[in-house]
Every structure is written in C-alpha cells, then in structure tokens.
Description:
The structure holds two protein chains of two kinds.
Chain A: E1 3-10, E2 21-28, H1 35-46, E3 65-68, E4 71-74, E5 86-90, E6 97-99, E7 102-103, H2 105-115, H3 137-147, H4 154-157, H5 160-164, H6 170-181, H7 190-197, H8 211-215, H9 222-242
Parallel strand pairs in A: 1-5
Antiparallel strand pairs in A: 1-2, 3-4, 3-5, 6-7
Helix pairs in contact in A: 3-6, 6-9, 7-9
Chain B: E1 5-14, H1 18-29, E2 34-38, E3 54-55, H2 69-79, H3 86-106, E4 116-119, E5 125-128, E6 149-150, H4 156-171, E7 174-177, E8 179-186, E9 191-198, E10 204-214, H5 235-241, E11 248-249, E12 254-261, E13 266-267, H6 271-274, E14 278-280, H7 288-291, H8 301-316, E15 326-329, H9 335-341, H10 343-353, E16 362-371, E17 374-376, E18 389-391, E19 396-397, H11 409-430, H12 438-457, H13 465-479, E20 483-484, H14 486-503, H15 517-541, E21 550-551, E22 564-569, E23 578-583, H16 601-604
Parallel strand pairs in B: 1-2, 1-10, 2-7, 10-18, 17-19, 20-21
Antiparallel strand pairs in B: 3-6, 4-5, 8-9, 9-10, 11-17, 11-22, 12-13, 12-16, 14-15, 15-16, 22-23
Amino acid sequence: MRQITFSIFRFNPNIPGDKPRMQEYKLEEQDGMSMFVALNLIRENLDPTLMFDFVCRAAICGSCAMMINGRPRLACKTLAKNMPSHITMMPLPVFKLIGDLCVDTGTWFRNLQIRTEAWVHTNKKFDPKALEEKMDNEIAEKIYEPDRCVECGCCVAACVTANIREDFLGATGINRVARFMLDPRDERSDADYFDVVGNEDGAFGCVGLMGCADLCPMEIPLQENLAFVRRKMAAAGLKLTFQGVKIS
Amino acid sequence: MSAKHTFISDVLVVGAGLAGNRAAIAAAEAGLDVIILSLIPPRRSHSTAAQGGMQAALGNSALGKGDNPDVHFSDTVKGSDWGNDQEVARMFVETSPIAVRQLSSWGVPWNRIVAGKRKLPDGREVEDTKDKEGYITARDFGGTAKWRTCYTADGTGHTMVYAVDTVVCKMGITTHDRIEAISLIHDGVNCLGVVARDLRNGNIVTYLAKSTVIATGGSGRLYAASTNAVICNGAGGAICQATGIVPLGNMEAVQFHPTGMVPVWILMTEGARGDGGYLLDKNLYRFMPDYEPKKKELASRDVVSRRMTQHMRKGLGVDSKYGPHLWLDIRHLGRKWVWSNLREIANISMNFNGIDPATSLVPVRPTQHYTMGGVRTNKDGAVYGLKGLFALGEAACWDLHGFNRLGGNSVAETVVSGMIVGDAVAKYTLGATQNYNYKLIEDFVKIEEERIKNLISGKNGRENVYDIKKGVENAMMDHVGIFRTGPDLQQGVDKLRELYKRSLKIGLRSSGQGANPELADALRQTGLCRTALSICYGALMRTESRGSHSREDYPKRDDVNWLKRTLAYWKEGSDLPTLDYEPVVCKELPPGDRGYGESSAAGKSK
C-alpha cells in the first residue's frame, strides 16, 4: 500500500502565541481507509492535539465537513483510494474556527433556524385524543426530500455569496424554508415567508454558480428548491407591490 | 484556563438527543427554566442515526389491523425475555401512539397509507383500504405480531430529531453545545448539578439546577465494532456511577444487531428485513427459515444474531479478511423500493462499500448496537440513590427493554420517556428548591481541576489513554460477545480490571491546553473502564441465559433464580463493581414462551 502525506491546517486559538500553519503527517494507506480512520490514526499515534469532529462516521450527522483538497466534503465518506497521495485538509470557511479542523456549525445553524423561524407555525392545538390529520404520502415524501439536509455546511462553504456576505442564508437556509413551504401543516402565507427569505440575504442573494448543488453530500436538489422558493417569492413580491406594500 | 462560569437553572438536561430534548420541552412547558447541554450540535446526536422507525400501535396499515397497545405490550415483554418492568412497558405502549401523532403535528413527514392492493416479497397479497388512506403507515419489524413501525423512509431518527429540535428552538430553550459533563455535584442525598468542560476552549464550567437529567445515550463504543456514533461511550452513566451511590442496572444486557455492514459496522436497518429482505449464507441459501420457521428473519434481534453466529460457526459464513460474514439480500424488493424506502442504507452501502443493494448483496455480521442497561431509575425516571437526579433514553435503565429490545422500540422510548419522565421532572422541580453550601460546589470543581492538573503533569503515571481505550474495546469484543461462557468472562474481567488500574495512571502526551482532545479522552477513560467492568462482571455473575445475555454454560432462562435485575455500584477504592439485585415483577404477563428462539416450540423444530 502507498504512503499518503496529509497536510493539515493547525491553529488552536486557545493557546497563547499559537500561529496558523500547515503540518504534515504521513500514514501507510490501509484497505478501505476513510478520512475518519486516517485522522483518528494521526491523533492516536502521531499527534494527540489534533482537533477534528466526527460523530456518526456514516455520513448522516453532518459533523465532519471540511475542505479536502480544496472541496468541502464529509471526511467520513471520503475514501483514501479515491484521493491522490497528497491530501490537504482545511477547516470550512465562513464558520467560526474552534481549532484545527473544527468549526462552529452549531451556532451558525441555530441562528439560521431562529432567523427563518424554521418550525411548523400553526394555531391548532394538539389533541392527544384525536387521530392524526391525514396527508398524502406523496406530500410526505416531498417534504422528506429537503428535510434530509444534515446541516453539514458544505453548501455554505461552497457558496460565493456566503463567503462574502455574512447574513446570507445559504442554500441550506433556502432549502429549509422550502421544506416548510411544502408542508401543509405550516400555516404561514407567502407574504409571511417573503419577510424571511424574499430579499438579498435570502432567495435573491444567490448569484447562480450552484456550487452548493454540486457539493451537497446528501445530493439534495438545492437548485430546484431555490427555484421553487424564488418563484413563490417573486409572485408574493408582485402581489405585495400591487397591494401598495413597500418592499426594500 | 481562563474565565470561570456558573449557570443556574431549574432543570439541567445533559444530552440533546431525542430523549433529552423531549424531556426539556416537557419541563419548559411547565414554565421551568431549562438548560440543555450537548457534546455536539444537538441535531448531530446519535438519535438521528435511527433508521427503520418507531413502534406505535396505530393499527392503520393492512397488516397492522387489530393492533392495539395490549399486543404491543405483549410483544415488548416477550422481546425482553420477561426481563423488563411491565409497569413501564404498559405506560410506554399506551403513550407511544400519542407521541407519534404529536410528532406529526410538529412536522415529522411520516410515510402515509396509500390505498390499494400490493403483493409482498413473500407472495402474500395485502390491501390498504381507502378509509385509511393518508393516515400514518407502518412496516414490519422483528419480534412483532403486527406491522407497527412508523417511519419516514429509513431516515426516521433524522426527521424526528429535526422536528423535536424545531420545538426547542421555537420555545427558546437554552442549549449549550460542545459542553461535556465530567462529574456530578452532590451532597450524598441531593444532586445539585454538574461540573463540565467547555469543548470549545477547555474551560471548566459549573451548572447548578434543582434537577439534573441524564440523557447521554448508550455505551456501544466500549466495543471495537459497534454501529454506534463515536460519542456513544457511556460517559453520562459513568459519572453517575462514580458517585458510589448510583447504580447502573442490567449492564450485561447488550444488544447485537443482526446487520452491521462489514467492515465499517454501520447499521443496515431492520426495515430491510421488515420490508422483505433475506439473509443468505455462502451458498446463497436462505437459512433463517430452518432455524425460525415462524418468524424467519424477523425473530427478535438477539435470536437472529445468535442464529447467524451459529450458522457461521458451521462454516457457512462467507470468508473475508475481516472474518466470516453473511449476506443481506434486498435485490428482490426492486430498485424503486430500495432507493425510496431504504435509500439511506442504499446510500451508506454505496458510500462505504461501493455496493448498490438494488443489484448486489451487502456483507453483514451481528454488531454491537444497543445498551439495554443504564442508570437505574424508577418508573418516573428518578435515579436510585440521589434526589433531583433523573435519567432517560438509552442512558437509563427505566427498564422498558429488559434483556432484549425490539427494533423500533428505542426511538419510540426516547420520545415517550421524554414525555413521561419530562412530566415527572417538571412535577418534582416545581416542588423543589435549590439549597446548597457553595463550598461543596467549589470542592467538586477543585477535584476536577486537580484531575486535569495531574493528567497534564503525569503525576500519577504516563499510561497512554489510547492504549487503554483500545485494550477495553478489544477485551469487550473477545470476552463479552453474543455467546458467553464463565471462563471467558472471567478472563475478560481480569483484563478489564488491569486496564482499570492502568487508567488511574494516565498521563497526557500533549500539553492539554485549550479544547485538547486527548484530555477529553483521558478525563473519561477511568469511568469507561468501570462501565466495561460492570458489563463483563455482571455477565459473569448472571448464570442463566435471558434475551441477549446468552451463556453457553447456562443455556436456559432461569426464572426461579434470575427473575431479577442487576444493580452495579462502584464503591470508592474498589477495582470491581459491587453487585446487588432487585426482583423483576411480572405484573401482567407471567414468564412463558416467546414464540421464537431456542427455547420455544417453533425454534425446536430444527
């Protein structure tokens, strides 16, 4: 098996005097080796200070997104056999750095949920004695599609607008809004959504490069969802204009 | 270390998976001030990895007709091999349908009934009727008499976690992520909160509350091969046991899931077999009907895992460099079914093995999956030994599952116990007050600061934490597996005892500064050694076979001597747990035949 050289970004902001740098580690490739396996081998055998995040290691929790050879990817499902002998690892841009390869996606996504009020808005009170409301299975499946987002941050890292503009919701934010627009249980009107996403920090901030759709590890149709939200918001915007509402 | 912080709330919930978050919601609904701690952003919790679904007796689907909580109850008790608490099981089965419907109102896109006839892979024809169309549907799962497992494709845990967390956001409940509780603060009678480490910067933080709720998940990662997320190491239970007065219950009850994917041990949902998948051996022969003519691939997990192991021991496994394995075959379900209803495992199998299960076989072997045992509580979730301390979910031994958990009952337990225990927490907290001597709290903080100092300076020794961690993982694999024997378990205890002693001498190789990961591992390792010993020693002393605990030297269930629950305490200065036992009361259903497995009539035919 070949030897692989890993160049890994190192910086621990909590150590006084520490400076950002790249550090090299060498490992013998193993059969089926993923970046999850590689990084743990480095920590356990070569450098116990190396910081990185894994939780499920099965590409379903979204913890381990990082820049691998220049692209945002989930490290757990990035296999050595598909990579060259020199692998560069950097933390995701946009998100606040915690140290080395760890970034604070938690705070970013929590703010996003609160900004977009990403929950079912309803005036109905849950009745524990009543049967569930009916729904078409087709609609349930449609909601599941955008609901599959794991909040890994790859689309945000891959987005020109998000890299420039701090307040941009990113493809994940627009996708999240699309999820609730599709859900008949959410009673918000298009005008309500317009306040959330009908502006340059939302659906109209996208410049259309679609790095998000290319790099989503869950292969969520982000482009379609963006188009869906834009159509709705354009219509809602027109309607509001006719009603004499000033749109900034 | 820089700034010190102390946070005070009514309720402190440790763990933001489904159980912790749901309990937090119940407490917040009662008007209480709640803080949730999480190792990671809450939506990354291991609950999100639950695939196949949640059991609730709705009785909507064609093969769920006639289902009700009584049938669910009897399936659950049989599944547990009469090891569970039947009062808890009764509350659970009655509440689960409410939980599933409430989750629907919160946004979970449950798959729904589509009216019409369809042919099942085994040839049966079923018809979902028009009057049920649009209600929540269900799939078949192991050890159940009815189709009862509600699902969203095979990403059920994910959609549940996200929906429950939206309610946490909506209610404005405070969540602190990247915080690890490293010890409980208590005065021998009351629990007062936790000492925690901030995983962003390494600072020590104190959390004080009227009630503290442990919802930290299972301890699967004590095994080298486990389907569990890397954070599921049992540390939450370990800090409770470290008090010396809180016991862990039934730790020897460890579930092995039949279908962990070789060689990465990621779960392939039971839904794959529920939807009609087969298990094949090296001759591509479907062997399960020979062992279990009635339930076939859908006997309970403990039984299927043993049958698979038995079959591989006969030399009928597929040889690989990772040892023998068997095949999961879902090709006959068709591409459309596989890539819609089982798409997450199809993705996993593509991502990690390059295999499309719609056209190829998936290599599987039974793999550690679930911790039935945990922090022992009463039926309100109140922990034995300390007032103001509660536990729920996989971290707890509330004892819904006894010696074997049914598939679909754990994700259901998280939210159902979240409702029941959450309400009990609220009730307790509304009548409680905070009353403590601040010196006591400072002393607990000092103990942790001292531990950290000693780990960094190497005062107690220079043992490498990763050597000990690996040692534990291998000992558990070698000695506390699916089939167990006295001599083997004794060897395991000896090894783990040695590792425990070494863990007291851990010294860091790094500086331990900031959010240092080696320090995080070092701080938990001694507790994890204790947990591992509680599993192994409990298994050694339990001289019977019940559910997942299968002793080859004691192959029969022994209701005369062993209708009881193990309580493992850790006394200060000891290098073994102190075991105590309490009776298991079968309030409704007396011990009998499970209807599948080695001891049942169905199983004996071969």
